[in-house]
Amino acid sequence: MNENTISPRAATWREELRKSMPARERTSIARVAMPELTPDDRVRSLTDEVNAGLNCEQAVMEAKRCLDCPDPQCVTGCPVSINIPGFIKNIERGEFGQALQVLRETSALPAVCGRVCPQEKQCESKCIYNRMNKPAVAIGYLERFAADNAESTQIAQPDSNGIKIAVAGSGPAGLSFAGSMAAKGYDVTVFEALHEIGGVLKYGIPEFRLPNSVVEREIESLRALGVTFETNTVVGKTLSYDDLHNLGFKGLFVASGAGLPRFMDIPGENLINVLSANEYLTRINLMHAGTPGYATPVYRGKTVAIIGGGNTAMDSCRTARRMGAERVIVVYRRSEAEMPARAEEVKHAREEGVEFMTLHNPIEYIGDENGRVRAMRLQRMELGAPDADGRRSPVAVAGAIEEIATDQVIVSVGVSPNPLIPEAIDGLEVTRRGTIAADADTLKTSLPDVYAGGDIVRGGATVILAMGDGRKAAESMHKHLLNS
Asked: What is the pLDDT of residue 391?
């Protein structure tokens, strides 16, 4: 994007904004701080959102910081290519509904992305303020503000072209794809294996970080576009690939995710109260374990160990505190600098009383006479040479082993792709990792009418990367169908 390619209207807006406040005044404005619940209030509730959101005055002031660069690099850092200056400048003018409209041009889930996407590693990392050694514009906060505060507007349902498209999975990739295809006039049906729509947005991310009401609001927007949702339907079991063809579907987008938990294959992993983060979070987030009126069982550990350092580990440790754990310990084999979790999530966890044992790795879990975990043996580590990803590999320190008491262990060391669909559809090529093989540019699989994206292709990634896959696959399938 440059001055020669923007529309005359956009050029006029830019000139008006530059006259209204010179750049030096904009750069002198301090970045807004997100209002938050206090740590004491947080740990009393599984559902109260920690980040409280910006008010109108804060949002407009933060929007004024945007310099509306002629070549906005922030857009290049966004996997779904949101027109970031466009929506931010609408906030500055107080046109919140228009800001949301700009967001929805490319993003099916702006209220979700504004909360859980790692903006600091994506769009905000490209912000010109970084070159000035100043904090980037709070793009994520502003995206959330626009999605939460714009007046509800009627979404125009496009004319149907009569072509039926199926989606397997209602997580971020599936929802993004469904929204993009519905906007082009396709009759889209999303099939979800579970009893609620939302996939990992519902079962994986706690409500204190992403309220279910926010996810439902985004789903209703897709319904307004004409998307149909079917729950309790397992593509590959309830409905076969041939069944979809017999029902008249002309294309399938596989977004079944990576819900198969990994373990470390160390002694004691089969002890009672050693479980995966997926199971732990699903029981609490989706099946309401611990909530009055629900019978879903879950053990409430007093001393809980979380193994891993990603966002799922942070969700697990913060959930454990809210479930009444007196001591919660995050065990991570590298240093905190290598921890993949968002810095904000680590900060919140620490404020909520979570302990961190970095440069430690479990080598054994020890049980009591009843087969329940009672302790873990940890190997102290040090950082050695960088691995294939450029991170320094952890190396065991000889003889440095300690035993820590724990009555619950939650393992969060990654996930593997769901094997059901790859195994159920003949001719669908898979990789050595069990992910579906899809062309990097088009996300087309080895079958001409099947596309795939999100964790079933990537093997585990962020919400926004999955959404980017959904949007890319929709564009590719649309072009393919037009030329068929």
From this structure: 78
Q: What is the CA radius of gyration of the chain?
A: 23
Overall size of the chain counted in residues = 484
* Range 320-329 burial, b when 16+ CB lie within 10 A, else e: bbbbebebbb
Which stretches within 157-263 are classed as H helix? 172-183, 200-203, 212-225, 241-246
Name the amino acid, one letter, at 336.
E
Residues 122-155: tens digit of each pLDDT: 999 999 999 999 999 999 999 999 999 987 655 6
Q: How many domains does one find in the chain?
A: 3
The pLDDT value given to residue 3 = 37
**CATH number, residue 36:** 1.10.1060.10
CB atoms within 10 A of CB 310: 19
Distances (CA, A) of 252 to 173, 195, 222, 308: 13, 21, 18, 34
DSSP 224-238: HHT-EEE-S--BTTT
The distance in angstroms from the start CA to the end CA of the chain is: 32
Backbone angles phi, psi at 383, to 5 degrees: -85, 130
Query: Do 412 and 308 contact (CB within 8 A), yes or no?
Result: yes
CATH no. for residue 307?
3.50.50.60
Say whether both 47 and 94 belong to one domain. Answer: yes
Question: Which residues of the chain are modeled with pLDDT < 50?
Answer: 1-9
User: Does residue 155 lie in a domain region?
Assistant: no
Domain with 449 in it: 164-259+417-482
CA 287: distance to chain centroid?
Answer: 20
Within-domain flag for 335: yes
The span from the CA of 312 to the CA of 315, in Å, is 5
Look up the pTM and report it: 0.92
- Going by their DSSP bridges, the two strands 408-411 and 392-405 should be labelled as unpaired
Domain edge (last residue) among 390, 411, 432: 411
